[in-house]
Amino acid sequence: MAVPMTRKGYEALKAELDRLRKVDRPQNIQDIAEAREHGDLRENAEFKAAKERQQFIDTRMSELEHKLGDAQVIESGTGPSETVVFGTTVRLLDVESEEQKTYTLVGQEEADLKNGSISVQSPIGRALIGHRVGDVVQVNRPAGMIEYEIQKIFPGVTTCLQPYPF
Predict the structure, then answer these.
(1) How far apart are CA 32 and CA 110, in angstroms?
(2) Which of 21, 53, 73 is the last residue of a domain?
(3) Residues 39 and 109 in one domain
(4) Domain containing 93: what range?
(5) Does pTM top 0.85 for this prediction?
(6) 29-44, pLDDT tens digit by residue?
(7) Helix or strand or coil: residue 93?
(8) Cα angle, residue 129 at apex, residues 142 and 80 outer, rounded to 5°
(9) Using CA atoms, how far apart are residues 105 and 86, in angstroms rounded to an integer?
(10) Phi/psi of residue 126, each to 5°?
(11) Is residue 115 part of a domain?
């Protein structure tokens, strides 16, 4: 199943995988070899820690390979978008509090609310998709219903790229 992802999110996962393969794992293998030289492995805390780290690195590499293999990179365009789609940045007005918020709709793997990136699968993301400037959308959240007016839509999707080649 293809997982939508921005180019930025894709590149960040790819860079992490490359770092794990080229830096972290080789260093960990060296750490294991050095710990073995210290004698009895049953009582060797350095060896145990290095083996646990190796398991973490291998698991994370496998996760990243699956995520990148399932990724469908969607490039953001530079022209205006009339509707909210994956990759767009949207400026919203909370109708009740009149507070402005700006969100970029991204894939689930790269969502980071602190940095203004929300998943298209989140309640707000799902509510915004397909709407236009001036539309008022209702978002059902645990604290109750909230309404946002879409004030501005920044550039959106133009192309889809192939998944990560393994």
Answers:
(1) 33
(2) 73
(3) no
(4) 77-159
(5) no
(6) 999 998 888 776 677 7
(7) strand
(8) 135
(9) 5
(10) -65, -40
(11) yes
